UniProtKB/TrEMBL annotation:
Catalytic activity from the UniProt record: ATP + protein L-histidine = ADP + protein N-phospho-L-histidine
InterPro entries: 7TMR_DISM_rcpt_extracell_dom1 (IPR011623), CheY-like_superfamily (IPR011006), HATPase_C_sf (IPR036890), HATPase_dom (IPR003594), His_kinase_dom (IPR005467), HisK_dim/P_dom (IPR003661), HisK_dim/P_sf (IPR036097), Sig_transdc_His_kin-like_C (IPR004358)
Keyword Protein transport: no
Annotated protein name in UniProt: histidine kinase
């Protein structure tokens, strides 16, 4: 009628492979289970004969027997005739060769309606002995069907887990920032591999040679530890919080304990393995804390995760029960693996969907933020242009007026105009700098810089403006500096100038000492430490907290010399932080202040010394001009600007230098005059009504009718770095900002005249 599991009481003859049939002292054990006597007392490792008499109907033929898992070596006898052998039984550890094959065996036909089934078993290589899973009797077709179903279950679960492992490994290759995929892939892979040796049919044992049973047992323990560790890492990656740290560390310790037992003999090791399984179950129960907490906090997929972990804990419980040979347990173990894998796949899918939603939301927020930043930048660029354009006229004409004969009263009024204009320009520059730093649009331009020369140039600028009898500025090098360092020359000079400017502003008399120290970090890198110490009025302790705040002037109520924007130190701090350094201050009110900053820099291998003053955009600039410059450098110069006031200012400046300039008020006329007069230098406004300056430049550069290309210098009220790069990439050779200063114009003409007017962007 079908298959019959041979579960129940079997006769056991302990330490006896040739028992007498009619023995008066018979003991019985329960199969499947650890071998015991009639009083359920466990036998130790050793050898025994288990026997059973099976009654069958008359003329019953074609019966088959499928053995269960029998530790560690055994022989099957029917009517005292050997029909199957797994490993080699022995009466000691050395004489036994263990093996765990599961086979289907044909039963000889019964002649007296009785089958005498005997098992000769030896167990010296494991602490749990006996028959772990049922022996089954049935017809050939039904036994084969049962075996195929059992193998199929193992294969389906193995293939499912292996597919999940491969799928999530591929996902990890595409989303490296999502480590849950790789941890889950490892968990599924190890679970699939373990099925080969702990599944219902123990498939791997059918294909391994005898004699490596101990190795497989130890590998089973190692694979369990790796599975356990990867599972804990998987949970930790999902619920990564300091409050759960103790739970994870406890599980890591429990998992790794097993490695200390690997050198033990196989019996002690197998006992330790059983204890380790129980400890692991306790540790896994602790993992429920972060998981249940995640459910309470309604984290994405937390319910799926809780369900899968409960399935996993159940699975480990089944492993423990299987370890102690409890009835029927192995038939459920692989389903625990499958439930775990599929439920975790659902959890990760829900988590991925939520992540995609979050990424879309963050993308939208990023686009909105970028739109706001772009609007802010555009607004600042426009406002800068609109403010600087009239300022060019104010400051330019002020400079021209200063060259005329004036009364003392007129000079006083003119100085006030110049002072107010300079402060307004300073405010515009500082606001632009601070905005770029806060919006993340600030970029460093690293280049080899002679720090020693830069420091001397900065100090010399201030020395020319001071009364040496009242205030002395000194520079001291604590040790030798590298010749060149890789840093942003303009920003470094801006930092030094801001700190020196404040020191001069708040020090009526005494001294200002700048000390510089180079601290080696490793072969090609140093930490540059700069200190600016003054003997000025100092900073009140209660105002120290506002020192680096924007628009905060610590001494605005104390002295008339403190006129400024209140942005200098805020910008200085942010610039130093952009260089990867920091700044701090020590001050005693009434006695002076000491500002110290440091940053790290690479040592440059540059051999040829560069000029510190390189362009109008450098902070340290040439401050004088030559009224006979045209005699030294006779040039034909064209001014292209749609604003008549700016045209007038530039023309007057050039006249002071000895030049008579050509003028064009739009792009078309500029092109015509370049073709007609072939100027050497073109000062070109960027924003013109009919054709902007960059378009004009491109037309000039592409023209085949212009035999000699002029040097084209951008003249714009837009000071943003992006605008400068746009001009240079558009074919212009240099860049000047409004308001224009006479000495800047002198410097630019000298710069390009010395280069024989060879344009750099042809």
């Amino acid at each position: 009628m079908g298959n019959v599991p041979l579960n129940g009481e079997w006769r056991i003859d302990w330490q006896n492979w040739d028992p007498q049939k009619d023995s008066t002292s018979q003991e019985y054990t329960i199969v499947p289970g650890h071998w015991t006597n009639s009083n359920s007392k466990k036998y130790p490792t050793g050898y025994a004969t288990l026997s059973l008499i099976i009654l069958v109907s008359e003329n019953t033929k074609g019966l088959y027997l499928q053995n269960g898992i029998t530790r560690n070596a055994f022989e099957i006898l029917i009517q005292n005739n050997l029909v199957y052998q797994s490993g080699s039984i022995g009466k000691s550890y050395t004489s036994e060769i263990p093996n765990l094959n599961i086979q289907t065996i044909a039963i000889p036909d019964s002649k007296n309606q009785e089958i005498q089934l005997s098992l000769k078993i030896s167990c010296f290589h494991y602490h749990v002995c006996g028959v772990a899973t049922p022996y089954t009797l049935g017809t050939h077709s039904e036994i084969n069907k049962l075996y195929l179903e059992t193998v199929s279950r193992d294969i389906i679960v193995f293939a499912s887990l292996f597919t999940l492992a491969f799928f999530h490994f591929v996902l990890y290759l595409f989303w490296r920032d999502e480590k849950t995929h790789i941890y889950f892939a490892v968990v599924c892979f190890l679970a699939a591999i373990r099925l080969l040796s702990i599944g219902e049919t123990r498939i791997i044992y059918n294909y391994l040679p005898p004699g490596i049973y101990e190795t497989i047992v130890r590998l089973n323990g190692v694979s369990f530890v790796l599975l356990y560790l990867s599972f804990v890492l998987y949970v930790k990656e999902i619920y990564n919080s300091p409050k759960y740290r103790f739970v994870y560390r406890t599980n890591f310790i429990i998992a790794l304990i097993l490695f200390f037992a690997l050198p033990l003999d196989i019996i002690l090791y197998s006992k330790f393995l059983a204890i380790h399984l129980i400890l692991s179950l306790v540790g896994l129960l602790g993992l429920l804390y972060p998981i249940i907490h995640g459910v309470i906090l309604k984290k994405p997929g937390s319910k799926f995760f809780l369900f899968s972990v409960v399935a996993t804990i159940t699975l480990f419980s089944l492993d423990i029960l299987t370890e102690f040979a409890k009835r029927g347990i192995p038939y459920l173990a692989q389903y625990g693996f499958l439930v775990f894998g599929l439920s975790q796949a659902l959890f990760i899918a829900e988590r991925m969907i939520e992540n995609f939603r979050n990424k879309e939301r963050l993308k939208q927020e990023k686009e909105n933020a970028e739109a706001k930043v772009n609007f802010k930048t555009s607004f600042l660029s426009t406002m800068s242009h609109e403010i600087r354009t009239p300022m060019n006229g104010i400051l330019g004409m002020t400079q021209m007026l200063q060259q005329t004969e004036l009364s003392d009263e007129q000079k006083e009024y003119l100085n006030l105009i110049q002072f107010s204009g300079d402060n307004l320009l300073l405010l515009v520059n500082d606001i632009l700098d601070l905005t770029k730093l806060e919006s993340g649009q600030f970029e460093l331009h690293l280049e080899p810089v002679s720090v020693r020369k830069l420091l001397h140039d900065c100090i010399n600028i201030f020395k020319t403006q001071l009364d040496k009898n009242k205030l002395n500025v000194e520079l001291e090098f604590i040790n030798e500096l590298p010749t060149f360092l890789m840093t942003d020359q303009r920003r470094f000079a801006q930092i030094l100038t801001n700190l020196l400017s404040n020191a001069v502003k708040f020090t009526e008399e005494g001294s200002i000492l700048i000390t510089v120290e180079s601290v080696p970090i490793y072969e090609r890198k140093i930490r540059l430490k700069v200190s600016v110490k003054d003997t000025g009025i100092g900073i009140p302790e209660e105002r120290m907290g506002n020192l680096f705040q924007p628009f905060s002037q610590v001494h605005s109520h104390l002295t008339e010399k403190t006129v400024g924007t209140g942005l200098g130190l805020a910008i200085t701090k942010k610039l130093i932080e952009e260089l990867g350094g920091s700044i701090f201050v020590n001050s005693v009110y009434g006695r002076g202040s000491n500002f110290t900053f440091h940053f790290e820099a690479e040592i440059s291998s540059e051999l040829n010394e560069r000029n510190t003053i390189t362009s109008q955009n450098e902070l340290i600039k040439k401050t004088n001009w030559d009224s006979k410059l045209a005699e030294k450098y006779p040039l034909k110069i064209l001014i292209a600007d749609d604003d008549p006031i700016n045209q007038k200012v530039t023309s007057l400046f050039l006249k002071k230098l000895g030049y008579t300039a050509l003028q064009a008020e739009n792009g078309e006329k500029t092109l015509d005059m370049v073709r007609t007069y072939l100027p050497d230098l073109v000062f070109l406004d960027i924003q013109m009504p009919d054709m902007d300056g960059i378009t004009v430049t491109r037309c000039v550069r592409k023209s085949e009718t212009i035999p000699k290309q002029p040097v084209i210098i951008a003249l714009t009220a837009n000071v943003l770095e992006e605008e400068k790069q746009r001009c240079l990439s558009g074919g212009m050779d240099d860049f000047m900002t409004k308001p224009l200063l006479l000495h800047d114009l002198d410097f630019m003409i000298r710069k390009w005249a010395k280069k024989d007017l060879t344009p750099s962007n042809l």
